[in-house]
Amino acid sequence: MLDRTEPVPAPGTASARRHPGRISTALRSSPSRLAILVFVVLIFLFTGLFMTPMAAADGTTTHFSDALFTAASVVCVTGLATVDMATHWSVFGKVLVVIGTQIGALGVLTFASILGLVVTRRLGLRAKLMAAGDSNPLRTHHGAVPEGQAVRLGDVGTLLLTVAVSTLSIEIVLGLLLLPSVLVTGIPFWSAVGDSFYYAAMAFTNTGFAPNAEGLDPFAHDYWFLSLLMVGVVAGSIGFPVIRTLTKQLRSPRRWPIHVKLTLVTSGVLLLGGAVTYIALEASNPATFGREGAGRTAFQALFLSTMTRSGGFSLVDFDELHGSSLLVTDMLMFIGGGSASTAGGIKVTTLAVLFLAAVAEARGRQSMEAFGRRIPSDVLRVAVAIVLWGATIVAIATVVLLQITHEPLDRVLFEVISAFATCGLSSGVSSALPDSGKYVLAATMFLGRVGTVTIAAALAASQSRQLFRRPEERPIVG
């Protein structure tokens, strides 16, 4: 076993200059802490850029609270806004939005590793560990993980290439396919090109910003355009490890890792189940689906179910939904998309592991099993920690925002979950927030994007070892 302790360099030596203090050592030894630091630096960097007069369409300085909120929403690929994203920002501001979403979608550590790979044409061990930790939260914990990983350390270089190529190729193809629909609306050619690739980037990164003030209204009956948006959102939300597996082993599903199978099956069940639920709840609502035909209702329900999984685009006014539909939307947003993806939430594999644990307990089995594989108990502990931290963040933010805004609970809870899950759907609360409320939602977006496991690993000494075991005693549960 490797010794994790490092010798203390002598003062004045070159080694000492490379290790200026405990803070630097802590950052080097913990990719999770580095992730938090980089995200914070990026958010404040983009805040400063958004505050420059050249970023605003009218040439004025954007208020700090709006710039900070926008920066957090962009870097955390959320999609919430306190200003009109289509009219407030200049061309330079919109370029900043696209760049920020690309960095946030790829993951700062993965993005940094891609740059290192391009520059040096090789990845060092530390860069591989950082990238692997960004794609698999279990690597933030001390010790070897016993099960096969969704991303093995030796495959990190290939994964990073997959991330870069898949992101670029998917967004380019989407932009080209969306271009005819944008041209049909009467937008000049070069503006249409910009809008098409803007929509493609926002769909794949699961951000949901629109480049025009009307949003999706011009495309409300363009099923080609809306279907492409759904394809982009799903492609971004299933995760890069899944994309890599599908591109290399599409015809050999039996060889797919359990992570890929759980992600695809759970995502499919949630997608179709959400659509059926929306049809059942909203078919009689004339303000949403009630006046539409059967085919139109089914399509809109599928579109809504897709976008609640972190997509952020919307065809309906959420103030018109029944309370039951809002609650279903809250649950779908909280779950989110796949691990190591552009989506947020607690992730579909977390839900799958909790479900498998409940099934194993009901059957009286000691271990969780799926697709002929046994899932270790430490995965369940991580899943429980993710849900607990996520629920705690949502609860605290909701209570604070209720006190600040005095808005109804269902609207505030909807906005908070959308921020935490980096979904971007809004009940309208964000547009009328005071500065204190903007800071609360910005912090919620940050915590949701960085990840509850990363936060827990950074705050607690997750790499500390306990060399003894206390006597066992069982409390009464339930």
Automatic annotation (TrEMBL):
Pfam families with a match to the protein in the record: TrkH
Record's subcellular location: Cell membrane
Annotated InterPro entries: Cat_transpt (IPR003445)
Region named Disordered: 1-22
Signal peptide: none
Membrane topology, from the record: Multi-pass membrane protein
Domain of life, per lineage: Bacteria
Annotated protein name in UniProt: Potassium transporter TrkG
Lineage: Bacteria, Bacillati, Actinomycetota, Actinomycetes, Micrococcales
